[in-house]
Amino acid sequence: MFAEYTAAELTSIFAMQGFAGLILFSVFVLMALGLAIIFGQMGVINMAHGEFMILGAYTTYLISNLFADYLPGIYSSYFFIAMIVAFFVTGALGAFVEWAMIRHLYHRPLDTLLATWGLSLIMQQFYRTVFGAREVGVTLPDWLMGSIAVTDMVEIPINGLFVMGLTIVITVGVALMMQRSHLGKQTRAVVQNRPMAAAVGINTEKVDRLTFALGCGIAGVAGSAFTMIGSTGPTSGQLYIVDTFLVVVFGGAASLLGTVASAFTISQAQSTMEFFLSGSMAKVLTLLVVVGILMLRPQGLFTLKVRR
Length: 308
What we know:
Elements: H1 7-42, H2 49-70, H3 78-100, H4 109-131, E1 147-149, E2 155-157, H5 158-180, H6 182-192, H7 194-199, H8 204-226, H9 238-251, H10 256-276, H11 279-296
């Protein structure tokens, strides 16, 4: 497999695939952060998480068109506004879904799986009806175009660097929020002991709704970032949902650090193997390794110590 390449070529290949893996890692982290909050903190299997990401992507697409048509002078800054709007749009829909459906299905994980899978099909059909079956894309601002030449054979796209920087900022923000904010402390209290949290005056239903909305909102931001590196279609979210669940379970369902470590490991493995093997074979081998590790360590890479 490696014999036909020189040492210099292999070094360049591993460098380029490593950076491609970092871009995939960024998408995995942004997707998995929201899913880790919903699944890890609430025990809800949200199969529509990918569709919430695509809602954020379509929101970004609409705002980019709005800026291109009516505000071309400040088009270069449209993404930051689109990202904020995508967060609140997907978060608001997430809060409504939690109120209308999810709150009736707590402690019934298989029911949440079936219900959210049905929701994902509804959302896909809605996107197909409104935006059409063909994929759409946004026009990147000039400052996100081009690449940085590291060597004669290795170039790093600027939009990829931007997505990675955005991922770092959001990951640190979520970690600080879960550890130090009022909502984060209440969420951790509800996870550790729901009856006791309710006994000391925490509105557990409100915490559940805000937590689900936050997870969906982060998925919307992931959708905004997704438009920087790929085109958007009605079923684009389904391409990432299995890998995202794999990241969350492998890292430890309630651990943000585990989510980041798992996303890095899986993305780098897939990116490197896809160059030398087919994409499907890379996914199969990655899945087999992860399943084997989970058989030995079913709680995942990292776990939270919770007093029972």
